[in-house]
Structures are given as structure tokens and as C-alpha cells.
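Risk register update: the risk of archive-format incompatibility is retired. Evidence:
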Amino acid sequence: MNLPMHPMLVHFPIALLFASVLFDVAARVFTRDSLRDGALWLLGLGLVGGIAAAFAGGLAEEAAEKAGVAEALIETHEMLAQVTLGIMAVMFLYRFLLRNRLTAGAFVAYSLLAAVGLVAISATGHTGGSLVYEHGAGVHLSHDATKASTQFAQNQ
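Archived output:
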């Protein structure tokens, strides 16, 4: 059974990191410790999910290259994923060392890092989407679908 795990896993770190940042903002606005604690849990789960997605992506890399996807595009996606995981790990470690109690100054520094993390995970997702939707990574067309698309192109 060939079950592609990478596309099944990538959505979790994306959603969890964004949710973590939203929980942090809500925790500041509503001064709720439970929201701040939730933000830490979401970040930790996002980090674990990101590691799992990166591992699954590494397993899928060879298949994408065999399908004719340029190695440079795959390497760019992989590098962005590694940068994102690094940022998430630093964010988690920062919170852990401060016992999840961010002073106003620490919150500003953390928020800047979180903003960079959101940009990094967005860029990672964008390049991953480009690999699939523009370059066909992981896309398997049946013989009938290939024949139909060829006929359609000839009729245009």
C-alpha cells in the first residue's frame, strides 16, 4: 500500500502554529492564563507535527525526483521547512525557559519571532503547493486521465 503521509501531515503544523499565535494574542487581550497555556500546547503540538511532516517529506522526496520534479525546487521546500522547524523550536524553547511567563518585553521579542515563523511556514506551504500543483509532485494520473488530457490539448 502506497499511502502518501506527507500531504496528510503538513496541515497540522501550519494550523497549529497559526492557532498558537492567535491564542497568544487572545491571552494578552483577555489576560487569561488558560489561553497562554493553550498557546504553548499548540506550539508544542505544531512542532511535533512539523517534525513528523518533515520526516514524511524526506521519504517522499525520492518519488518526487523520479517523477521529474527539479531537485532544486524540492531542496528549496526542504530548506524552508527546516528553517520553519528551527524557528518553532526556538519559540518553544524560549517559552519553556521563561516558564511560559512572557513579560511585556519578552512578548514583543517572541511576537517578532512568531511573525517570522508565520512567514516561514507560509513560504514553506507555498513552495510545497507549487511542487504539487505546478510541477505534479506526488500526482499520479491514470492511463485514462492522461489520454483524456492529451486529447483535450490536441483539440484546443
